[in-house]
Design brief:
This protein is an alpha+beta fold. It has a domain of 282 residues. It is built from 12 helices and 12 strands. The strands form 2 sheets. It has a 10-stranded antiparallel β-barrel. It has a two-stranded antiparallel ribbon with strand order 3-7. Strand 4 and strand 5 form a beta hairpin. Helix 5 runs antiparallel to helix 7 and helix 6 packs antiparallel against helix 7. The longest helix is centred in the middle third of the chain and has 39 residues. The chain is globular and about 90 Å long.
């Protein structure tokens, strides 16, 4: 999908592809090992700049290159925010490193649902030495691929020559090859060096930047290049490494089905001895359980049904990455949903002020399972106040500049620059 492609034109399109059986092609992130900040600084349980993780402390490209304080401070209370996600997400065919950060204020009682309490920062490092090394490696890779193709062609010609020699008659004339037809060697090499959608950092499990084949093969970075600087001056949640793999769904199970929620609400009504047969489902739910009422309201929301379907297939996903694709909306209500239901050619997501001729495109979103992982310590300690007053979002959607532009004057002496990008939070409905 190009950066100029439009978002869905109406609510029907937001879930039409799933109802028709079309399967998505996003990448999903799942939590892996928990990070340990109390051990040795060189521990394998500490992240590097080329890892993707939720929680923990932010990593900058180096100690002296950090974002402005205003970028990482809550727009409501002014306190430093905590890291929700750090994703190493270099773009296909680009020679520079790129990281996406999502921060949120930990004072959820005071700042939840307020403007500026969740922010997204995009960081780029255009280190000329590393970029030159990468360019050289790419050139070597292309040269090696050409040599392999040439060798394959030579082998094919040898096989053809052997075939001709086998079927020459005594007078030297060539006869018809009884095994004629399509030449089995005149096909694309199934083992040719092509790269499909894969994690851009190999085994570290970070999101791929696109769903297209990548001509770039990244070199192995040295410890100095890849370690980054851990900034412990921030409040933090428990940190977990994230690994990424293509989304998998089964076509037969795509149609959304929330009947089980209706059953649970009805069952709860029976258990409580409700005698009002004429009471509507919503009024019963409101009387018995605010959460049940909330579910009852959501059952009529097609976007929520679609969201629930995705979670049913991969319930432990914490991250969804689909550069240039469409986000999964938690709700069809509110300004975020409106931004992705434009009837015009362009999205209603604001254009980047620092690059007004460009558009923003969807890149990734955090999924609600991340809340459980980030709140693991509160759950383990049975801290009811922290849980009740904790994070209450359904999804956090990130859109970045389609041209991945940052003004040249933003880059420091280390060739590092930071800029804020668009973040849309769909909060849970208040009960």
């Amino acid at each position: 999908m190009s950066s100029n492609d439009s978002y869905y034109s109406d609510e029907e399109d937001l879930f039409e592809s799933y109802e028709s059986g079309a399967l998505p092609s996003a990448y999903l992130g799942f939590t892996d090992l928990q990070m340990d900040y109390n051990g040795n600084e060189s521990s394998d349980e500490l992240p590097t700049i080329e890892d993707t993780f939720i929680g923990g402390y932010p990593l900058w490209f180096n100690e002296t290159s950090r974002p402005k304080d205003s970028m990482v401070s809550c727009g409501n209370c002014g306190k430093k925010m905590a890291l929700l996600l750090q994703a190493f997400a270099p773009l296909d065919g680009k020679l520079y490193d790129r990281v996406i950060y999502i921060f949120a204020c930990k004072d959820t009682r005071r700042c939840s649902r307020t403007k500026g309490s969740v922010k997204c920062i995009r960081a780029i490092c255009k280190d000329p030495v590393k970029m030159a090394t990468l360019k050289e490696d790419v050139s070597k890779g292309v040269e090696k691929e050409m040599e392999e193709k040439l060798k394959l062609e030579q082998d094919k010609q040898k096989q053809l020559k052997i075939g001709e020699d086998l079927f020459k008659d005594a007078g030297g004339s060539s006869q018809t090859n009884p095994f004629g037809g399509s030449n089995p060697f005149d096909q694309a090499n199934p083992f040719a060096s092509t790269t499909g959608p894969e994690s851009k950092t190999g085994d570290s499990g970070t999101p791929d930047s696109t769903k297209q084949q990548s001509p770039v093969q990244e070199p192995e970075a040295t410890d100095i290049e890849s370690s980054g600087y851990i900034d412990r001056s921030y409040p933090c949640y428990p940190g977990y490494f994230v690994f990424v793999e293509p989304e998998k769904r089964t076509k037969a199970d795509v149609d959304p089905d929330l009947e089980k929620y209706k059953h649970l609400i009805a069952q709860e009504s029976d258990n409580e001895g409700s005698s009002s047969a004429d009471a509507g489902l919503e009024s019963v739910a409101n009387a018995l359980n605010p959460k049940a009422a909330q579910i009852s309201r959501m059952m009529d929301d097609k976007c929520f049904e679609n969201f629930t379907t995705a979670l049913r297939h991969n319930s432990t996903q914490v991250l969804r990455y689909d550069l240039g694709g469409k986000p999964l909306l938690y709700s069809s209500k509110g300004p975020v949903a409106k931004a992705f239901s434009s009837a015009t050619a362009d999205s209603l997501v604001p254009r980047p002020a620092y690059n007004p001729s460009s558009l923003r495109r969807f890149e990734l979103q955090l999924m609600p399972k991340a809340i459980l992982d980030l709140s693991a310590e509160d759950l383990a300690n049975a801290d009811s106040n922290a849980i009740i007053n904790g994070m209450s979002w359904g999804t956090i959607i990130i859109c970045t500049d389609a041209e991945d532009y940052i003004p040249p004057e933003y880059f420091d002496s280390n060739h590092v620059a930071y800029i804020e990008d668009w973040v849309g939070v769909q909060w849970e409905e208040a009960s």
